[in-house]
Amino acid sequence: MLGPKRVGPKREGPTDGFRYQQHFKQRSQRSHIKHSQSQPDKSDNNSNAQLPPENIATIPTQKIVFNAPFDNGRTAWVEVFNTGTKRIGDAIKTTKPQRINVNPPNGVLGPKKRVRVAISCEAFDPGSEETEGDRVTVQWTNTPDPDANVFKPEWFQGDGMVRRKNLPIEYNIR
């Protein structure tokens, strides 16, 4: 009685006992060498930081709006969402630090986590102060340590890639 017909590629290499074992032993050693060369070194703390940071999302997505009157301070809320799979450090800066405050100005966000940030505008006279070009910039980078919980400014000063998202500020004067 004939068995089922073999379908698929032919097996390569020797098929008799000892030579068969030696062939697959050598083959597995070669694949181990290739595998270890392609994997990043786990002892290297900067391996995570050398990868490009993934995207973030913000709400609002396009701009921050402050409505008049500006004789009192105003606060807008921005939600920053880490949509990626790696822990990131984020820093939020503004072009007018004397008028626009950010709280918290920086932090660490785990994968799929979000933070709500207060963007506060101090009282000012829009007729006498320049408001053109005001913006908030969200910067982020992968943390060198995947378990980091405390923000470190040096993450933004090394060789790692830093990404930015600009949110223009619009002042509704009327």
UniProtKB/TrEMBL annotation:
Matches recorded under InterPro entries = Ig-like_fold, MSP_dom, Nematode_MSP, PapD-like_sf
Q: Where is this region: Disordered?
A: 1-55
Q: Where is the MSP domain?
A: 55-172
Q: Where does the record place Polar residues bias?
A: 36-50
Q: Which UniProt keywords apply?
A: Cell projection, Cytoplasm, Cytoskeleton
Keyword Cytoplasm recorded: yes
PROSITE patterns reported in the protein's UniProt record: MSP
Where in the cell is the protein located?
Answer: Cell projection, Pseudopodium; Cytoplasm, Cytoskeleton
Question: Can you name a GO cellular component term?
Answer: pseudopodium
- Main location, first listed in the record: other
Residue ranges under compositional bias (Basic residues)? 22-35
Secretion signal, residue range per the UniProt entry: none
- Give the PANTHER family listed for this entry: MAJOR SPERM PROTEIN (PTHR22920), MSP DOMAIN-CONTAINING PROTEIN-RELATED (PTHR22920:SF7)
Q: What does this protein do?
A: Central component in molecular interactions underlying sperm crawling. Forms an extensive filament system that extends from sperm villipoda, along the leading edge of the pseudopod.
Protein name (Swiss-Prot/TrEMBL): Major sperm protein
